[in-house]
Design brief:
The chain has 565 residues and is mostly helical. The chain is built from 19 helices and two strands.
């Protein structure tokens, strides 16, 4: 029997967790969605808020540049490494229970981060935040997948997706504001949000099912090592060097003319290949619970939707990694002004969320994804065509608004498509795989786009300085690139280097143009990937969309094996 047929049979035999509801979700479900969305926002904001408060952290804790990078990146690396493991754990422990554990973990880690006496303690606290974030992201999707059905399902995913786009934009604004008081509030403010989330989840979300099962320890180790090292290699490639070492590794690097990055990437690939082989073997073997049920990829909407997710994530957030640098060092924006400008993405994202409510039933999830990708591409093409060292604020705001609307449409509904046919009992695994695909795409996209940006900055500035006859132009262009543009204000203050500063601003604008075109091209690939997603017939049953579809335990599971958590 094919995997698709197995899942159809699963749906017929599924055990209902709760009495059948009407397609109109009750008030408690929507209030529960607010709590879930706040949890997702908390995780996403902590990706971006630290970028803005890093200068005062460096001054206060006296940490090195390397230490500062670990404060920023330890969170992302740990989160990426644990997504698959936490997705599977969600099915065994119960999504609501694990979401609560993740939120509490995040809150305690935030307290520790706010009270950090030194950089090492702050890095450890950020890693603990990554553990909490890795729990919250896949369990939030599992909860949505089990709570909403029918037309309300599309609306719920629209809100969830818009929250991600908005939170990514709110982080710099919030960080810029809090930095005026103390960087510690960037972490301390999380405590109040955690309290609201816990109150909302406990009061408004119903208990979710648990499965009997064990964690695949070998698979867990391989996935953590593979995803963790892959995230490290992609994030730190420019820092340590993609091939030749750019940093001294102490006694470990003596006599070795090879960067640590290709070594970690090779180990990552080997680990992930072994992990995939192990999961295929365990999926085929009856009675063995894999960490990643590879039969899920037999569901065409799941496999093609994840491919689209990966490609779209490559483009969606890479531009946000370099945009603040351009706004501050080329256009002279302050940290708070930069945060306000990037906040336009959030405005566009929430606008799309509201518009999506009325469009979801007529257009369908895949149609909304395509509309979103077109809007994102238009916004990014505006950067490609119009970015300059004297760009008007309203041009930037218009481009970011279009981009934000696109994120609001596309991010939400591609997730809806991926999880549409996943049985509720495997919602945790499905959500973990989808979250891992998104995180992997984001890490790869940021690596590609930041490398593209700094390479374009370096080469273009070198050419401009050569045309000016500026002595030592190659060395200066490397220095400006390595400083991520931070040298430009200092160069402009010296009359001897003012022309070089103008050239650097033009070169940074050229880098933004290249990134705009690159991201738009990647979104075109994402658009093509959406045409692989099968069309759903109007009368076709959808897990979470069919009136009679049960909302309970794992398909085909015996009722005695399903416990409430």
């Amino acid at each position: 029997m094919s995997p698709g047929a197995l899942h159809r049979e699963d749906r017929k035999n599924a055990v209902s967790e709760h009495p059948t509801r009407s397609s109109s979700a009750p008030r408690d479900a929507w209030l529960g969605l607010v709590a879930i969305s706040l949890g997702v926002a908390l995780v996403v904001v902590d990706f971006t808020i630290v970028n803005v408060v890093m200068p005062p952290i460096i001054d206060d804790l006296k940490i090195s540049a390397v230490g500062a990078q670990w404060v920023q990146e330890s969170y992302a690396i740990i989160l990426a490494a644990l997504l698959l493991l936490m997705g599977r754990l969600s099915d065994i422990v119960g999504a609501r229970r694990l979401f609560i554990i993740g939120t509490v973990t995040f809150g305690l880690a935030s307290i520790a981060a706010a009270a950090s006496p030194n950089g090492e303690f702050l890095t450890i606290s950020r890693s603990a935040q990554g553990i909490g974030g890795a729990i919250v992201m896949p369990t939030s999707l599992a909860l949505l997948n089990m709570t909403f059905r029918g037309p309300n399902r599309g609306k719920a995913f629209a809100i969830w997706g818009s929250t991600i786009g908005a939170a990514a934009a709110v982080g710099p604004l919030l960080g810029g504001w809090l930095a005026e008081f103390s960087w510690r509030w960037a972490f301390g403010i999380n405590i109040f949000v955690v309290a609201l989330i816990l109150a909302g989840v406990l009061k408004f979300l119903q208990r979710s099912p648990r499965q009997s099962g064990r964690i695949d320890v070998a698979g867990g180790v391989l996935s953590v090592v593979g995803l963790g090292l892959l995230a490290f290699g992609l994030i730190e490639g420019r820092n340590y060097g993609w091939w030749e070492p750019r940093k001294d590794l102490g006694p470990f690097g003596d006599g070795v003319n090879l960067s640590v990055v290709p070594v970690t990437l090779v180990i990552s690939v080997v680990s992930l290949v072994l992990f995939l082989q192990l999961q295929v073997r365990r999926t085929r073997k009856n009675g063995t619970a894999p960490l990643m049920d590879t039969s899920l990829f037999g569901i065409k909407s799941f496999s093609t939707g994840n491919l689209a997710t990966l490609i779209i994530a490559l483009a969606e957030f890479g531009i946000l990694a370099v945009l603040p640098l351009w706004l501050q060092y080329t256009l002279g924006y302050s940290a708070l002004q930069t945060g306000l400008m990037v906040f336009v993405v959030a405005v566009g994202s929430f606008f799309a969320s509201g518009a999506g409510f009325g469009m979801a039933e007529k257009t369908g999830p895949v149609g909304l994804v395509r509309i979103g990708l077109v809007l994102e591409a238009l916004g990014l093409l505006m950067f490609g065509l119009l970015a300059s060292s004297d760009s008007s604020w309203w041009v930037i705001a218009m481009a970011l608004f279009l981009y934000g609307m696109g994120v609001g449409f596309a991010t939400a509904q591609v997730t809806n498509v991926v999880l549409a046919d996943v049985p509720a009992g495997q919602a945790g695994q499905g959500s973990g795989i989808q979250s891992a695909a998104r995180q992997l795409g984001s890490a790869l996209g940021i690596a590609i786009l930041t490398s593209t940006f700094f390479t374009a900055l370096n080469s273009d500035l070198s050419e401009r300085l050569a045309q000016q006859g500026f002595p030592g132009g190659d060395k200066l262009s490397w220095a400006v690139s390595d400083s991520a543009g931070a040298m430009i204000p200092g160069l402009s203050q010296n009359p001897k280097t003012a022309a070089a500063a103008d050239a650097a601003r033009d070169a940074m604008s050229h880098g933004v143009q290249i990134n705009g075109y690159t991201c738009a091209a990647l979104l075109v690939l994402g658009m093509l990937a959406t045409f692989l997603i099968p069309k759903r017939k109007p009368d076709a049953p959808q897990w979470g969309g069919d009136e009679s579809a049960p909302r309970g335990a794992d398909a085909g599971a015996d009722v005695q094996q399903t416990r409430a958590s």
